[in-house]
Each structure stands twice: as structure tokens, then as C-alpha cells.
TrEMBL record:
SUPFAM superfamilies: Ribonuclease H-like (SSF53098)
GO cellular component: nucleus
GO molecular function annotations of the record: zinc ion binding
Source organism per UniProt: Fusarium oxysporum (strain Fo5176) (Fusarium vascular wilt)
Protein name according to UniProt: Uncharacterized protein
InterPro entries cross-referenced by the UniProt entry: RNaseH-like_sf, ZnF_BED_domain_contain
Keywords on record: Metal-binding, Nucleus, Zinc, Zinc-finger
Amino acid sequence: KFRTFLLGLPQIEGRHCGENLAGRVSEIIYEYGFEGRMGYFVTDNAESNDTRLEELATELGFNKQHYRLRCCGHIINLVARSILFGTDADAFEEDCQADKELQDEMRLWRAKGPIGKLHNIVHWVQRSGQRIDKLHKLQSIENTALGLEDRSTYDVITDNATRWNSSEAMMERGYQLRNPLDSLVQAEVTEWDQYVAMRTGGGTRPMPKRSRKKPAIVDDKMSSEDWAVIAEYLAILKPLKIATKRLEGRPEEGMTIGKYGAIWEVLLTMEWLLQHLEDSKLQHEHDEEPYLRIGCNLGWMKLDKYYTLTEDSPVYLASLVLHPAFRWPSVESQWADHPDWLERGKIADTIPEQPTAARKTTDLDDFMASVRKLSTQRAPSAPPTRDEYAEWLSTSDPGDCLVDNPIQYLASPTTTVSTLVTNGN
């Protein structure tokens, strides 16, 4: 059974630089006697983590590139933020924090298109108890008019610029409440138009200098086209949400989709997402507004960057080869158009750059299943003299393609490759 343990929570004195972090991690490793059997390090992409692992690799004698794995949840977060906010996501966040004037902040968000306009509307509603009450009343009116059995009403969900899933949740709830939200904003637009008409004599004279300031929310009125873009963003982000759940390290109790961030799922999930973003980019190639097309392209580029970095560690490919549902036949079929890469992968200490698979699918589970089926092809002939790894590659069972938990499978008493299991653990 998969378990996690907190081994230490040391206080770091001074800067949280790689050298300081490495020193404290090293102390914990030696305290528990792990120095001779280190596994892999999963971290985010901060430079201090690279420095920390370089220090530990020198001290403990391991290959830093082989043992340094990147947190997939963090990668997906970066991909989603690129889709939503572009290449300047961090700069945009800093601008919003620096601009304390509400009008200027709303202007910055509005420049982001429909997502920015919805952000402004949601935060505008949330700042006023009266507007929140009005939103619930409008929902009740709509529920009654539609004859819905479920008469529940909902609050808006506010987002923040650092977590993409908060933006996704904001858009999902906003789209659900689009009619009440439109009514709220339209009331402000109507009131402002009436005021302007009164002050200008129906447009016959200029607006007096001493007039009310135009409410910023008036410029954030959502059109039907804006809501359609929000719906498309939700469709684009849905696979990223699925992948995050699939690869998270601690899935909720009773959930079946997560495999505790199993390493063998990483490459396949990344390929599935790359294909999804490529398809989405082509789908929106001729859109009048460029938001979706540019977002998909930036997201694809960000994901491809980190997908390429997986070549630094052979564990990604090894995890597929040692999985009973995949092995080499699946890998060879999946990358059949790239025989040179396959050959280098079999003999090299480090794995060369993976080409993106051309296989197309629309669902992650279907994609995984399609690759599993490839493992039922005939295994290569075993050489006269072989070790347990060679035996593993040359023998398979028809039921292997159904295996979900490779560790449990390999640890089973019926598994003959005991040495392979011991070395793998």
C-alpha cells in the first residue's frame, strides 16, 4: 500500500537557497539511514531545487539529472496559466498587485478579454452584500420561471492569479450563473445610459464636466460571444483538470482515477494533453478573436518544453517497460514511426528526446487503454542466455493489459521476477 511520511520539518536559518536546503535535507537522510538507497526527488521548477539536488548528488554520489523529477501538477498549472494569461502571466500578476486603484486593476483584467471581464464582474458582485442578495433573488426568479426542481442558489466563486483551477472554477460558476449576472450588469448599464441621456439632453450637448464618474463595470458587460468563449475555455481546460486529478500524489479516499502520481502515467498523460491542445488550436484557427488560438499554442509550447525535459531521466520510459500492461511491445507500437529513438532508448544510459506520438484520442482513459492493447502483441523471442529482465520482456499473460497497479502485481508471490522487483524497489 502506498504511504507517505513526514520525516522532518526543520527550520531554515537564513536564505532559502539551494545550499541551505540541501544541508537540512542531508541531515534528515542520514538520520534515517537512507543515504545508501535513495529514490527519486519530485520538486517544482524553482532554481533553488536544482542547486539543492546538485549539492546532494555530489555528497551522496547519484546522477542529479536521472533522479530529478518535476511535479506534474506544477507543470499543468504553468500550462493552464499560459493558456489563460499568455507568456506574461507572472508580469500580469505583478501589475495587478502593484495597481491598487480599482479602476486601473479592472482595466488590466479587461485587456484579457472575456476571462478578464468575467473576473471583474465576479469581484464586483463579491464586494457588495446588496449585489450578492440581488444575485440570489435573480437565480430564484429564473429557477421558478424554468420550473426547476432544484431551487438552490449559488454564490460567485472568486479567482486569484496564481492558481489556474481557481480561474476555471470562477468560469464554471460564472457560466452557470450567466443569466443572473447579465441582469445585474445590465441594470448598471441601463442606469448609466439614462443618466447620460439626462445630462446631455438625449445626446444634444456634451457631457458636463461636473458629472458622475462612469462605473467601470459598465464596460464589462458580457455579450453572447463572450460567454461562448468562456464555454470554449472550459472545454479546453477540462482535460488539464482530469490530468491533475490523475497524477496527484494523494487522491481522495475511495477515488479510483488517481494512481498516486504513478510515474508510468506521466508520458502518456503529457502526450494526450499535447494532442488535445494541438486539436484545440486547429479548431480555433479561424476564430475572429485570437484568445483561444494563442492560448492553446502557448500552452502547447509550455507543455512541450517540460515534456522534452523528461528525457533527462530514464525512469519515465523504464516505468512503462516494466509495467505489465505495457512493456516494450506497447512502446514500440506507440512510437513505431521513430525507430532510431526506440533503439537509442534500449541501449542508452540516458533517454533521448521523445517524439510526440501521432495517436489521436479524446479521452485520457481511452488513450491509456489503446496503448495497453498494444502490449498483447507477440513478445520478442528470448535469447538463449538471459537474465530476469530479459525474461520479463519475453513473457506476458493475456490478463496483463488489465493491470492497474504494477507494484502490487510485481510483488505478488506468483511473479517470477523477484530480483527485478527487489531492485525496482
